[in-house]
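> @MW can you paste both from yesterday?
MW: sure, first one:
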Amino acid sequence: MLAKRALSRNRGAMRRAAFLLVFFLALPAFALPALALATAPTALGIFDGWGAFRDPDTPRCYAIASPAATIGKPRVKPYASVGYWPKSRIRGQFYVRLSKERGAGRELRLTIGSRRFILTGNGVHGWASDPRMDAAIIAAIRSAPSMSVESTAASGGAIADTYRLRGAATAIDAAALGCARLR
């Protein structure tokens, strides 16, 4: 009787293993066509530490950079970007993803040269509160050597991500031109 139960248990385990093996071997056959449909963003140019890209699937264009320095070990990959979504008539929208999750109710400060902005957002996300602030941020980016985003992390530590702005103006212009005809 014991031998019969052990054999039955082994058959069940073998069936599960066979199913998983077939499933994972067949998965690439189904996933590859889906991946082929997604188009990779087109590089419009790399300008010092900033890159400009066009994503034809959305369509959108954006200038993007990683921070030159951050305090502590990042929990997510931080970046700052300026985006254009021509079909939605959104132009020059500033966005930042922080290196760590921000504490609830904590202020998110953006400093560019002598200009200071209080961003809105949640978690690791931050953006300008309105299009006027977007325009002011982009104007400040064009004339300053660096910018920093600061807040307090959910864990209580500091968040400080610093970006070099050399090449930012050119990347922003390339992104704007890259989407100028897409409407």
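MW: second:
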Amino acid sequence: MSGKVVHGWGWFLLPLLALFCYGPGLFHPFVYDDHGVIVEQSFLTTPGSWLKVVSLRTLADPEIIDGQRPVLLATYLLDRHMWGLQPAGWRFTNLGLHGLCLVLFALLLSRMGLDPAPAGALGLLMGVHPLMVEAVQSPSFREDLLCALFVLSFLLAGLAWVQGSSRGSLVLAAGFMVLALLAKEAAVAAPVLLGILVWLDHRHPVAWGRLAGLTVVAAACITALGVYGYSGRPVQAAGGAWNGRALLYPDNLFTAPVLFSGYLVKLLAPLGLSIDYTVTPVAGVADPRFWVGLTVLSVVVALVLGWLPLRGGWGRIGLAWILVWFAPVSNLVPLFNPMADRYAYGMVLGAGFIAAGIGRSRVARPWPAVLLVGLGLWWVSLTVTRLADWKSDRAIWSAALEVNPRSDRAHTWLGLLAAQSGDADSAREHYLAARSLNPRETSAAVNLAILEGKAGNLDEAERLLLEVLSRDPSHRPAQQNLQKVEQLRR
């Protein structure tokens, strides 16, 4: 192999430098969902768990946390075996997955016609984007990394197949599609992304037969997962008890354009990031936010379709990529959390295509590079600052409350921390604040009931628990604590 070839391939390792940004957060303790998903999940230490995961039996078991994502569970079982409950080990795995995603993204840019050096540089640039911190730093949100990893793999194999490679590429693409779907349901966007890349890549004639064949295979995988994985269980917030946060129909339809605009703003200027966002529903066309969001969405669609002028194809690919990756989290199917930074992990990669267009613009040569380098340095500073918020539960929820004073979840968590430290009065204040902000917040009600029970106010504790069970009869913590109240009365 010539030195020139080795040098060229070396550029694709450049994105791995982005991992150094995450060094300050490597040894932070588990926070937020890490407790329930990792520390307290008995499935990870139950004999026979591996067999259930490999045989896909977790798909049909709603009692297993993330059971519909067996690829994610497989990585958890590996980490539990290798690292125990050492947070640094779990984060090391996340960093490895993040690095692989960035390298694959650089390879995809190269496959689309970008030289290795700028492809590697753009992989590095996107890898330090602050919106990625939530997915990379928290092992309990690893599904977004895994989904992106296998979607990128699917796209590379799919492009190879469509552009004339052997059937091995088709088999690989199908396999990666299955793995992506079993990591996170958002992978349903993968075939559409492939279609966009093929459609907007004018360097090759479109092999419609090959593309159609792979699309049929991907659609079959999606259908099989939908039938087997979601029979008898609600899809996210659709069909379950309302948590007071999910967007109800038809508000979810009117709010979707506003959410899209919000993600676009955060992609460019990732300020005011939070672990929890409170989304005020858009109730109809009378709300001016709907028209602002719809205008932004319409402009993006017009640019993608070529109805509005946009020099070069990279910008069109990037906008289309962001739009398609947004679709699964648009809340057309209501989500428990309508908006989250981790949902934007794949969208950030779409911004890389737009950056490629800026880098290849006809503006005086140094300025695009200077602009992108300056943007990267700014993002690095924001990422390092954001990681400091993840140093503890108290830090992450205090930061969330500062950004979003209407976060009932932040009040609930700060109440839990206050109760653990023995400050019952502060805990009660936070729980009451959470219930005031979101009367359907069951966690605050249950923990307030526990506080009242410890204080001897059994009637109030019983009232709170019965209130929770009237909304969600299957709420296990409420059932268990109501039994304790009944035992104390005897």
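> thanks! Confidence is low (pLDDT under 50) at residues 1-6.
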